[in-house]
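User: Fold this one for me? It's Fatty acid oxidation complex subunit alpha.
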Amino acid sequence: MKHLSLEKRPEGVAVLTMDCADSSVNTLSSALFAEAEQLLDTLEADGALKGLVIISAKEKSFVAGADLAELQSMVHEPEFQAFITRGNALLKRISGLGKPVVCAIHGHCLGGGLELALAASYRMASDETATIFAFPEVTLGLMPGAGGTHRLTRLIGLPEALPLLLTGKPVRIKKARKLGLVDAVVARYSLKHAAVQAALKLAEGGMTQLQKRRRTLVNRLLDSGFLGRSLVFKQAEKAVLKQTRGHYPAPLAILDSVRHGYAHGVASGGQEDVVRFGQLGVTPSSRSLITLFSAMNSRKKSPCQATPVAVKKLGILGAGLMGHGIAGVSTDIAETTLLKDRTLEAAAKGAQEVMRGLDRRCRSGAITSFERDAFFARVIPCTDYAAFKNTDLVVEAVFEDLELKRAMLKDVEEVASETTIFASNTSSLPISAIAQGAGRPENVIGMHYFSPVHKMPLLEIITTDKTADWVTATAFDVGIRQGKTCIVVKDGPGFYTTRIFSIMMNEVMLLLEEGISPHVLDEAMTRFGFPVGPVTLVDEVGIDVGVHVAGVMRPHCEDRKIQGATLLDRLYTKGFLGRKSGKGFYDYTKGKKKGQRRLNSDLANLVVARPSKHEDLEELQHRVSLMMINEAFLCLQEGVIASPEDGDLGAILGLGFPPFLGGPFRYADAMGPSTMLERLESLEKQHGPRFKPADLLREKAASGVGFYH
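Assistant: Here's what I get for Fatty acid oxidation complex subunit alpha.
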């Protein structure tokens, strides 16, 4: 067999080992189902069998969920239903084996893997940080379809189970034990032996009382009766709708599944789950989310042909928010991380922020206390360049000042080796301008991180015509090891993400200048699917930052005949910087009114036009989103990005473009290039040449072939 093996031990316990061929993780597939069905036939016919242990041979994976490649190949509901029906039947056979079944879990126990564990009699897990539990189906637009919704709620209770089902967030071993999700925790290398012994004790009746979590009185009351459960469901549905605005059908389907199971029983609930799984599998949102996940997964291996150099000594210039953020995601990849600032006090403050981040990871169970202390010991605050000799990579993360960045590059080149890479974290300044006058321009590259660094998954790598291939490969390799999804883009004002975002924000400012209320614009774009309204976002980022980026992008806008908004400049001149100064478009010095942030009263004096009584939200959504989307088409047309996939990843992971729409290019394919062309042409007639459609879109519309074919 390719994926499974069965060992019958002298004690009478069988050990089923999962080890999917040609993969670093175990996934549930039709091929694995076929082998499991055959082995279960053998086990069910074995009268001498005392118990079964299910374990994985993988280094960090119990089961990582369903085989997404197989799911992506499915087109119709019956295909999804047939797949999940088969998985459901297997888990029913395991739970009804008539002998104790112990799952010995080390590594990722996700999705169908967690459903498998829940179908067992007993769950034993390793005590290592690699062991995590989650139902990530909801993040893929799907739901657990093999009984997981019903088994989980009955094991740990409805109030504790729903957050796991509805968010997909992982649970580490300490919390899993507390929840009652696992029955025992042991050292990894004793896991198999301990699981076999547990199976024998269960078979002999020596472990009749399994570990139970002490649940609070409130949770017991909420879970035990119809009224309590109704309250939990009502609050959960309210939270889901507030969070998703109805764009994601999976969370509501999960709630319906759990409700049905409580009302009609687990068997009926399982049958309904099969139907719902098939319905969700063919939704556009699920197709987009699965494609996004697959694209992110594919970036865990570098596409670069050149060989990267090992980055053992890392230097970071600037210990502020971005600098200590970059240091924080680098502590476990570099042997030494230099954190330089103008004063030792500032550098030490940045190092302390790194420690706070490590401490949070330690408390969550992501790393051990020993790893926390060892990683922090690698961070060295400093104030001069003397220590930068033999650094492999230096990342500058200082204010967007071109001359300052050039001076830093010169200082680094004077003390570092000929192979030291200099990377700028600039969000808008051309890398070629920073590298002007450099002694080794081939070593200069852009590494654009997003704030907050530890949360934002994208790294935009910017290359110039002179950047060496090995330098690009090294930047990509570092990004992967930092846990980032990387895209490589060509140099230019704003690169890709800042360019398409600034063009969109210019349109937002023009709409505000026309008198559209900030509240209305924010509402329109959050309804479209952005996580935060654009006006709120510019207040959060800082109006001063917006003014700087607008200045960098001004020549590009003039070339494109894009009318430049002036509202940001006027706010900046009056000292309104956004939340950081207490006032921007909104007033942060006062409380909210009817749940809304109050407007800055001075805004009325800066906007000549007055809002109309009836704003067309759909038209606002088109004007704002299509400016960004059309600019993305131009970036692909000009070779700034290499592929539609890069464009979609950058827009979603860096800018919050609605994931359920798949990104600008998948959104265009779903809408149809011809339809999108018509909308842009209509806007061009109404509002001028800034909406002129990209020639590439015209080509797609004429050929009838989408960006992804």
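One thing worth pointing out: The domain at 498-703 is CATH 1.10.1040.50 (N-(1-d-carboxylethyl)-l-norvaline Dehydrogenase; domain 2).
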